[in-house]
Design brief:
This protein is of the alpha/beta class. The protein has 21 helices and 27 strands. The longest helix has 17 residues, at 518-534. The structure holds zinc ion. Zinc ion is lined by residues 37, 39-40, 42, 45, 57, 59, 62, 64.
């Protein structure tokens, strides 16, 4: 693989321009190049930012604009991925962002701020902010931090009963999200004053309530200074950390009430405790050229920083660390160990995430420590207990080849596992159904989710089911794909969309079947898949047929497909860490007895032929196949269901 081609998927804008446009792009400014518009074809009418990948056409009648991935899809160098109603992730997020911006909530922030500063009942809240967190009046006023006795009525109109003493009796701190000079907050975050209330969970353990959003607010990045494209952005974890950074700026004489002040950098925070990245965040900071990510200094924070860099685009991100001995900005501030010198130092010394060069050994400290202290990665459950025991679940960064003779139900098993990932493990899944395209695959989804023939379903059941699996992205394509365009697509899915389960069904339909060197094409495709997956948090299930002239087709029923039977060069599958072989009696050779038995359950088995990781092993796992629902279960189960009550 040439390094230039490989760089395309890494988000390197300049190399992409060289590849796509040859000599037709020109430098306009330091970070800006012009190129022919993919929409109106006018020479030099488009410009693209080399750091952010955002591009637009300057011709008045042309509406061409987008990001690097949308440009690749326009040029046929990647597949377009629609998230909702035909819109891509970015388009859908932009729509939601515009809606959030136009939302008009009643402006009560000044009243709540006055309550914090003067209401005797707010004494604990004020003490928490000023003494425990070391945030001063200037910062509290500039950001209109306020207090309320308890949460405002939520969706059901139910009001929290404020207890007279103990947990939850001290009320909540309100943190309004003002965006781009709008006078109304687009979101209001509420934080319980310690001691926080707790609720008992179903399993009997307690959950402490800390943060919640006011109903109607959208989950957004907290951007107290607004966002300026050319100013370095320090991205921290949680509002208190962002306010701690502002505290330092205020102490150095910056005027926090003036968004146009000559700041050395700007700060934003990812929502605390909400975990996942939301595409809408990407819209907020899409034009920012330099982003320095500084989450907590612990292994989880460092891993989180790298994930965040993937979502944002590695080429404009650096990862920085808080002063030694402190886990975050606020911890350092409390000890008086955070000043402007520390902050500007962090920004200058952040480690570039995209650098593929050479780093002096200490430069690897953060990542190395994160690796050493994290426990063995636990694989995602397949939903079949015996199979989990055998293979140790499906581990991030690994590919599993699933084979078996044709008609044995590989696609059925693969669909079931994918549904389990999306519905039960709640991870985003990407499906390429290359043999028949999306429709037969989705019919199987309907059957497995509802346990009946999909052609007997009511249309609202169809809508309901599809809505349930909305975190499953299906490639709208059948037949072979261009290897490098597929690399782009897969990279986009695992890095930007955060997909953690990939189903490719199946390998031999991904390459042109009549290519004179089809086995070489297969080898290239497996290599590309493995390259992308091994650097991601995703697990890939890759279906592969055995070669036609094997034992499999001769001794139909009793033969288990072996690794050496796989279609392709021997070396093709050498680096794949896991290989599974599925065995089930074929319906064509099923005995009369089977059918006469009127049974709905058939014997099947998965044979683990290869498991490279120590938490999996080779061996055999018996299964039962349920014909009506098309589901596999442990052999002792009489019923099978993935169903969910409406
Ligand atoms: Zn144009």
């Amino acid at each position: 693989m040439s390094p230039v081609r490989h760089a395309l998927a890494q988000g390197d804008v300049l190399r992409f321009l060289d590849k796509a446009y040859g000599g037709q792009h020109k430098k306009v400014e330091a970070n800006e190049h012009s190129f022919p518009c993919p929409e109106c074809n006018k020479t030099d009418s488009c410009s693209i930012n080399l750091k952010t990948g955002q591009w637009c056409c300057h011709k008045a009648s042309c509406e061409g604009k987008g990001n690097l991935y949308s440009l690749k899809t326009k040029l046929g160098m990647a597949h377009r991925i629609a998230i909702k109603d035909g819109a891509t992730a970015e388009e859908y997020a932009a729509e939601r962002f515009a809606a959030a911006m136009s939302r008009r909530q009643k402006h009560r922030m000044e009243i709540w701020h006055n309550a914090l500063m003067t209401d005797p009942r707010a004494a604990a809240a004020l003490n928490y902010l000023k003494e425990d967190r070391k945030l001063n009046d200037t910062v509290l006023l500039a950001n209109l931090i306020g207090w309320i006795p308890g949460p405002p009525p939520g969706k059901g109109g139910k009001r929290w009963k404020v207890p007279a003493s103990g947990r939850g009796s001290q009320g909540m701190i309100s943190i309004p999200y003002f965006q781009y000079g709008s006078n109304d907050p687009v979101n209001i975050k509420l934080r319980w004053v310690p001691p926080e209330p707790r609720i008992k969970k179903q399993d009997g353990t307690w959950r402490t309530l800390r943060y919640q959003r006011v109903t109607g607010g959208d989950s957004l990045l907290y951007t107290p200074q607004g966002i300026k494209p050319k100013l370095p952005l320090l991205l921290v974890g949680g509002e208190i950390d962002a306010l701690s950074v502002l505290e330092v700026l205020a102490a150095c004489g910056y005027d926090l009430t003036n968004k146009e002040d000559d700041y050395p950098f700007q700060v934003a925070s990812v929502p605390n405790g909400e975990g996942a990245w939301d595409d809408i965040f990407g819209q907020q900071i899409k034009d920012v050229e330099d982003i320095i990510i500084a989450l907590d200094n612990d292994p989880a924070g460092i891993k989180g920083s790298e994930k965040l860099a993937n979502h944002i685009g590695k080429s404009r991100c650096k990862i920085a660390h808080w002063p030694t001995g402190y886990s975050d900005a606020n911890a350092a501030l409390i000890d008086g160990k955070l000043d402007l010198f520390d902050l500007t130092g962090m920004i200058e010394q952040g480690e570039p995430v995209a650098a593929k060069g050479i780093l002096a050994a200490p430069g690897y400290a953060g990542r190395l420590k994160a690796r050493l202290t994290s426990s063995t990665p636990k694989g995602l459950s397949t939903g079949i207990p015996d199979l989990d025991k055998l293979i140790g679940g499906c581990r991030a960064g690994e590919t599993t080849v699933l084979t078996g003779h044709s008609g044995c139900g590989k696609t059925t098993l693969a669909t079931q596992l994918t549904l389990y990932m999306a519905l039960r493990n709640n991870v985003k899944a990407f499906v390429g159904a290359f043999e028949g395209g999306p429709m037969p695959f989705l019919e199987k989804v309907l059957r497995q989710c509802n346990g009946v023939d999909p052609f007997t379903l009511e249309m609202d059941q169809v809508d309901y089911t599809l809505d349930k699996v909305s975190n499953m992205y299906v490639l709208n394509h059948s037949g072979h794909v261009e290897t490098e365009a597929f690399r782009e697509t897969l990279t986009y899915c695992v890095e930007r969309l955060g997909v953690r389960w990939v189903l490719l069904d199946h390998l031999h339909f991904m390459v042109p079947r009549h290519d004179p060197d089809v086995w070489a094409r297969i080898g290239e495709m497996v290599m590309v898949i493995q390259e992308v997956i091994s650097q991601s948090e995703a697990h890939c299930l890759l279906l592969a047929h055995p070669s036609k002239n094997t034992q499999a087709s001769k001794n139909r029923d009793d033969y288990i497909v072996q690794m050496s039977d796989l279609k392709g060069h021997t070396s093709t599958f050498q680096d794949v860490p896991n290989v599974l072989s599925l065995y089930r009696k074929r319906s064509a050779t099923r005995t009369e007895g089977d059918e006469a038995d009127n049974t709905d359950i058939f014997e099947a088995a998965i044979i683990s032929l290869k498991q490279r990781h120590e938490s999996g092993r080779e061996g055999r796992c018996e299964l039962a196949f349920h014909k009506q629902s098309a589901l596999y279960t442990n052999p002792n189960l009489k019923n099978s269901s993935l169903s969910f009550a409406p």
